[in-house]
Amino acid sequence: MERRTIGAAALGVGAVGLGCMPMSWAYTGSRQRGEESLRAVHAALDRGSTLLDTADMYGPFTNELLLGRALRARRPEAFVSTKVGLLAGEQHIVANGRPGYVKRACDASLRRLQTDVIDLYQLHRADPEVPVEETWGAMAELVSAGKVRSLGLCALGARSGRRSGARLHDGTIRQLERVQQVFPVSAVEAELSVWSTEALDALLPWCAARGVGFLAAMPLGNGFLTGTLTPGEGFEPDDVRARHPRFTAEMMAANQPIVVGLRRIARRHSEAGREVTPAQVALAWVLAQGPHVVPVPGAKRERWVTENAGAAGLRLTPEDLAEVAGLPGALGSWE
Q: Based on the number of CB atoms within 10 Å of its own CB, is 109 exposed (0-12), middle (13-18) or buried (19 or more)?
C-alpha cells in the first residue's frame, strides 16, 4: 500500500487507516464480536492499513483492550493512535483536560494497549474548564517522557456551538493556533467525505500549509456512502445513526443520488476480475484531497477492511473528481 506521512516528524502510515470504534462502541451492539474484530485488525495490518485509530472512551476502555490483544504479536507493524479528554458515563459524556488526569489516562491506555509508546496521542475534546494550553502542555510532557511520539487534535463536532456566520471549523482552527505555540501539532482528525466536505474550506488548507497530517474521520458517511444501507431499515437504539438527521428513512431516500453517482464511477473503473465499489470511490476521493490526507474508515469485519484497503490503489481521473463535485449536496444536517 502507498505510504503517507503524518506531521513534521514524517511518521509513515498506510494511505488508508482503520477506525476501530465500531468494534466496541456507537454502532449496532448486537453485531459487535471480539474475535471477528480481531480478524479485522489483522487483515488491516496484512494489507498495509497500519494506522489503527481508537480512544479510551470507546467502550469505554474495551476498544483499547481489544486492540491490545491484536498488538501483542504485531506492535512493530502498527501505528497506534488513541485519544484522551472525554469521559463516557451512563447517559452523558464530559470533558476532562486536567493535566494530572491526562497523564494518568495515558498510563492506563498504555497498559490496555499492551505497548510502551503511543504513536499519536490526540486530544479528543478540549475541557472548557481548563485552558487548552495546559492540557496540551501535559501531553507534550508525555512526548518528553517517551510515552508518546506525536500529538494530534480532534476537530470540534458538528453540533458544537458556533458564532453567527462562523464556518464549521473556525473554533478548531483557533484551538490549533493556540496549542501550536506550546508544542507542534502532528495531525488533525475531522470528518471529511463526499457528503461532508466542510473541512475543505479552511481546516484542510490550514493543515497543508503547516505540514500537519489530516485524518479523515467518517470518510464513508457512517456507512451511507457504501451503498449497503436500505432506507427505512432502521437502526438499533444504541446505534448513533438512530439519532442522526441524515439517517431518517426520508433523508436516506432523498440522498440516494449521491450513492448512485459513486456507483456509476465505480462501474467505469471495474474490470474483469476486479469490481470497484462505491465505498472505494468515496475513499479514493478523500485520498485525492492531498498527500497529507489519510482516511480512517471504521470497520469491524475483515471483508470491509479488505475492501477499504483496496481503495488505496484506485486513482480517480479529473473527470471522476468533477463528477463527484457535481453530485447533489447531502440533505439533512445538525442545523
A: buried
Under the banding of pLDDT at 50, 70 and 90, the label for residue 134 is very high
Residue written as cell 485525492? 288
Q: Is 58 among the catalytic positions?
A: yes
Question: Average pLDDT of 93-109?
Answer: 97
CB contact burial 250-281 (16+ within 10 A = b; e otherwise):
ebbebbeebbebbeebbeebeeeeeebbbbbb
> Measured between alpha carbons, how far is 225 from 229 in angstroms, rounded to an integer?
9
Q: Which residues are CB-neighbours of 113 under 8 A, at least 6 positions away?
A: 54, 64, 67, 68, 71, 80, 82
Strand spans (E) along 155-219: 187-191, 213-217
Amino acid letter at 67? Answer: L
Closest C-alpha to 16, from 329, 279, 330:
279
Q: Which one of the listed residues 27, 58, 101, 121 is annotated catalytic?
A: 58
Mean pLDDT of 134-144: 98
Under 8 Å between Cβ of 78 and 118: no
pLDDT of residue 229 exceeding 80, the answer is: yes
Give CA separation, 120 vs 189, 247, 286, in Å. Answer: 11, 32, 21
Q: How confident is the model at residue 31 (pLDDT cuts 50, 70, 90)?
A: low
Residue 309, Cβ neighbours under 10 Å: how many? 25
Could you tell me how many residues make up the chain? Answer: 335
Q: Which three cell numbers stand for residue 53?
A: 485509530
Residue 129 has pLDDT above 60, yes or no: yes
Cα separation values, 18 from 27, 37, 298, 324, Å: 15, 11, 6, 24
C-alpha cell of residue 117: 509508546
Q: What is the distance between the alpha carbons of residues 214 and 7, in angstroms, rounded to a whole number?
A: 9
Indicate the range of 154-158, 291-295, 297-301 predicted with least confidence.
154-158
* Pairing between β-strand 18-19 and β-strand 93-95 as defined by DSSP bridges: unpaired
Rounded CA gap, 132 and 62, in Å? 27
73 sits in which H/E element: helix 62-74
